[in-house]
Amino acid sequence: VCGCIILGFSIWIRVSSVQQVNGCSHTSTIMLAGANLLIAVGSIIMILGFLGCCGAAKESRCMLMLFFVALLLILILQVTGGILGAVYKSQVEAVFNITLENSVKQLQSTTGEYKEFQEEFQKLQQASQCCGLLNGPKDWGENFYKPSSNICQCGLEEQSSDLCIQYNNKYIYKKPCGEVILQQIKDSMVIIMGVAFGLAVVEILGLVFSMSLYCQIGSK
């Protein structure tokens, strides 16, 4: 049951995250790494849970030992992953910043090579009420000043709100999308870390109960 809950919850995180950051493929890859890991862990836990259940019902020491060893390996991998994440946090942030800088170059392109990316990113801007990635409208370069451009433009009902500022005779969103994306990543990681911590507690209980049952069966 725990494996099914984790699997369903991590799939929900992944789907909702894709919808939020589909305008920035490199960033979405970073953001969804933790969700993908939880999907894998949830699937494995579900299979192991079935194995442990059968071992307990049939009083099979072999199946209980397999359950214990596999669960222990997953717990060790989780702890290792958490330690590596803490150690390499600064490197991950540096890679994220480099990714944003490369994406800015794609936004400024006027060759049409990144037209699809630019269109998707405009949808992201409207949905998240933000503009550009790092430096607002400047990230769009010459594309922002085209006569037919409505890049970053606020809706009529939003122009008088705190979301917008006047720039180049237009009302545009003032918050850079890089801040919005980073906040989404942090929010998702908090959820993922919470689920991972709860999962670790369940795994430890599973290890204790399976070994206890293993010893009781052996003493019969």
TrEMBL record:
<keyword id="KW-1015">Disulfide bond</keyword>
<dbReference type="InterPro" id="IPR000301">
    <property type="entry name" value="Tetraspanin_animals"/>
</dbReference>
<feature type="coiled-coil region">
    <location>
        <begin position="100"/>
        <end position="127"/>
    </location>
</feature>
<keyword id="KW-0472">Membrane</keyword>
<feature type="transmembrane region" description="Helical">
    <location>
        <begin position="189"/>
        <end position="214"/>
    </location>
</feature>
<feature type="transmembrane region" description="Helical">
    <location>
        <begin position="30"/>
        <end position="51"/>
    </location>
</feature>
<keyword id="KW-0812">Transmembrane</keyword>
<dbReference type="Pfam" id="PF00335">
    <property type="entry name" value="Tetraspanin"/>
</dbReference>
<feature type="transmembrane region" description="Helical">
    <location>
        <begin position="63"/>
        <end position="88"/>
    </location>
</feature>
<dbReference type="GO" id="GO:0005886">
    <property type="term" value="C:plasma membrane"/>
</dbReference>
<dbReference type="InterPro" id="IPR018503">
    <property type="entry name" value="Tetraspanin_CS"/>
</dbReference>
<keyword id="KW-0175">Coiled coil</keyword>
<feature type="disulfide bond">
    <location>
        <begin position="131"/>
        <end position="152"/>
    </location>
</feature>
<protein>
    <recommendedName>
        <fullName>Tetraspanin</fullName>
    </recommendedName>
</protein>
<keyword id="KW-1133">Transmembrane helix</keyword>
<dbReference type="InterPro" id="IPR018499">
    <property type="entry name" value="Tetraspanin/Peripherin"/>
</dbReference>
<comment type="similarity">
    <text>Belongs to the tetraspanin (TM4SF) family.</text>
</comment>
<dbReference type="InterPro" id="IPR008952">
    <property type="entry name" value="Tetraspanin_EC2_sf"/>
</dbReference>
